[in-house]
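Need the bound structure for flavin-adenine dinucleotide, inputs here:
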Amino acid sequence: MKTDNSEQADVAIIGAGPVGMALAKALAEGPFRVLLVDSRRRRAWESDPRALALSHGSRQILEQVGVWNSDAGTAIHSIHVSQRGGFGRTVIEASDYDLPALGYVMRYRDLAAGLYAGVESIDLIDDCRRIELTIGSRAVEIRLSRGEETRLVAARLVVHAEGSPASEAGVRVFDYRQHAVVAEVRPVPGHANRAWERFTPDGPLALLPLGDDYSVVFSLPPDQAKRLQDLAEDGFLAALRAQFGGRLDFVTSSARASFPLALRIRRQLTAPRQVWVGNAAQSLHPVSGQGFNLGLRDAWELAEALCRGAGDDAGAAPTLAAYARRRDLDRRGGMAFTDGIVRLFSNDLAALRLARGFGLQALDIFPPLRHFIARRMIWGARAWL
Ligand SMILES: Cc1cc2nc3c(=O)[nH]c(=O)nc-3n(C[C@H](O)[C@H](O)[C@H](O)COP(=O)(O)OP(=O)(O)OC[C@H]3O[C@@H](n4cnc5c(N)ncnc54)[C@H](O)[C@@H]3O)c2cc1C
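Answer from helper R.:
Posting the output first, comments after.
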């Protein structure tokens, strides 16, 4: 491998999204020279319309890496879960777990801004239109093209944090044939820090408290999603009322945006001198808000594994193998949980409606079952160990 005139890094993180930046920040205090690379211009996330539900466990990680911004997050004190057109409901309360909140809702752009401020001291190469990797036995040569400029970097380890992968070899894809329509709406009366997860035959509808508003995530078949997205404000609010029922009213809405939804699972988390984290490793349906929380745990545990294991070689194979083993249960749990919910709830079969009703009722009257699920959502697989 040619390394003359090339820059040296221990860890090159490709993808400066929330997971890549969280990893960079977690590594910043350690012995590694870290480089961040992104294909978009810096701060491109400022136009991202989604809000994310962050679990209490994610708050703890963000606090530990020093980028938790409590002003940007709205606490979730309870979550009400129900299905449209069927019986059964349950409520999960933060007070049952001795926590100030089950989680927090934050705009993607506010989360990214906090992380970005935290990685200012780290070299970030943005707007890289072409990134070529040559894998060697002791390092990866990375050729970065940015406009007319080309940079060569030799890195011990490449971390892929580029977000959802395309359909490529090594990635299993299941298209949910749903798009998520997102918007911010003003509820009347106020939300009292309660989130709602309402299952409809078309797909799940989530309302997450955000400031004085709710962030709405409505998953629907693509044609219906398109119609909903194109409706004028009044029409959108009327459609929301029809799906949500009469417990709340909604008076204003922001513009709508939509995201196609698919499960994308990378079969192998590691390859020689490479590792995949966050959405690049697994992209999940947004139901129950697992994706970023899982990706943040990837970042945290990778940082721990690198600091614990590598000596002077961040890309050492035993370190990567140990990391992949550690992430297996949490990853599988997160994928099975969200995928199972989507398949069980996104249909109008009478028998399944009945089974769902009994399931929700069982969660309500049998607290250990409810606690089992709630703890998983708060802490990931750590809750089961
Ligand atoms: C509608 C919706 C609602 C959601 N709600 C929740 C929620 O409530 N809770 C939750 O935990 N999760 C939620 N998620 C999932 C969450 O958004 C993702 O899990 C999270 O954004 C993943 O972060 P990431 O950094 O891995 O990837 P991304 O956020 O996709 O960031 C990837 C970064 O890599 C860059 N990049 C892309 N390609 C390349 C390339 N080839 N080279 C270099 N850089 C590249 C991009 O510019 C970007 O900066 C939701 C998702 C959607 C769609």
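Comments: The first strand starts at residue 7 and ends at 14. The CA atoms of residues 138 and 156 lie 7 Å apart.
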